[in-house]
Amino acid sequence: MNEENQEFNLEPVEIHPEMYGQNLFGETMSKTVFDNDVSRTALDTIGPKARGEFNIFAFTDAIGSRNKKEAWVLYQKALASGMVAEEIFFKVFWQVKTMLLASRTKSAEEADMKAYPYSKAKGFLKNFKEGELEKFSEDLIKGYHEVRRGNEETETFVEKMLLKL
User: Fold this and answer.
1) Predicted TM-score (pTM) of this structure
2) Domains of the chain
3) What confidence tens digit (pLDDT) does each residue in 136-156 have?
4) Confidence tier at 128 by pLDDT (50, 70, 90)
5) What is the structure's pLDDT at 30?
6) How far is residue 54's CA from residue 3's CA, in Å, rounded to a whole number?
7) Residues 6+ apart with CB under 8 A from 159
8) How far is CA 94 from CA 41, 54, 115, 137, 159, in A?
9) How many CB atoms lie within 10 A of CB 128?
């Protein structure tokens, strides 16, 4: 080791993304980090079994339709059904990302999407003026980082974003 490495530990650090639950695009990471029974029980209570009959697609359709009242009511139902606010945030982000992708492509094939969600996203574009979707996406990303820094709670942030629709 050289002199600089003796003062600071500059050795490579292993990064384990499974420790973080979900990434920015809502893709669920492996849950291998949760080794004790308490953590497994907590994961089961927020999993699909606890969600009952809640229809997440009705929620994402309300966002695409820009119906803030319906989106807010469905958000409350999602929370009541056991979904975590961060998971709901990623559904909002997914919907906005899908609409942005549809706005910049000419076909589902070009967007590398299935025809049905692509056509729905294309149809929702009429509810947003030029630049509004980009601004909403930017606000989602900025807010996500504020939540991660501890400057805001996820539940409140998602609610504020829905009311901005």
Assistant:
1) 0.66
2) 1-45 (no CATH), 53-163 (1.20.272.10)
3) 999 999 999 999 999 999 999
4) very high
5) 42
6) 59
7) 72, 75
8) 27, 18, 16, 10, 16
9) 19
pLDDT digits (tens, 9 = 90+) for 50-105: 445 788 999 999 999 999 999 999 999 999 999 999 999 999 999 999 999 999 99
Tokens of residue 62, six digits: 């309300």
Q: Nearest-CA neighbor of 11 among 23, 25, 1, 21?
A: 1
| Tokens representing residue 156 in the block | 């409140």
- 131 to 26, 69, 101, 142, 157: CA distances (angstroms): 24, 22, 14, 16, 21
Angle between helices 154-163 and 85-103 (to 10 degrees): 40
Q: In 37-54, which positions are buried (b, 16+ CB within 10 angstroms) versus exposed (e)?
A: eeeeeeeeeeeeeeeeeb
CB neighbourhood size of 112 (10 A)? 9
